[in-house]
Write a structure and sequence with these properties.
With 93 residues, the protein is α+β, with helices and mostly antiparallel strands. The protein is built from 3 helices and 6 strands; from the N terminus they run E-E-E-H-E-H-H-E-E. Strand 2 (13-16) and strand 3 (19-20) form a beta hairpin. The longest helix is centred in the last third of the chain and has 13 residues, at 61-73.
């Protein structure tokens, strides 16, 4: 739980207040990773390794696209995913 954002890993559900938020598998995995260490900045490479896996051959732009989608879907919550210039992203409550 971060603010009014609640993630239930066992049920694979996300809610903002009482509203359900539909996320793809990768969006969900990315959100969980950021929430596990809220406030900590992760590089795009770190997120690729932990969410997509070491054998992922795509570019780091994939992370940017998924973060943009998450930001859009979580815009009504007090949680934001901030860009850390020169590093990557962090989740802030």
């Amino acid at each position: 739980v971060c603010g009014e954002l609640t993630v239930d890993v066992a049920k694979h559900t996300v809610t903002v207040g009482t509203a359900n938020v539909q996320l793809t598998y990768k969006e969900f995995s990315l959100l969980v990773r950021l929430m596990e260490s809220a406030g900590r900045a992760f590089t795009r490479e770190q997120l690729l390794e932990t969410v997509w896996g070491y054998d992922y051959e795509g570019g780091t732009r994939t992370v940017d696209v998924h973060v943009a989608q998450l930001r859009s879907k979580l815009e009504k919550s007090s949680v934001t995913i901030e860009t850390v210039t020169g590093i990557g992203y962090k989740l802030v409550v």
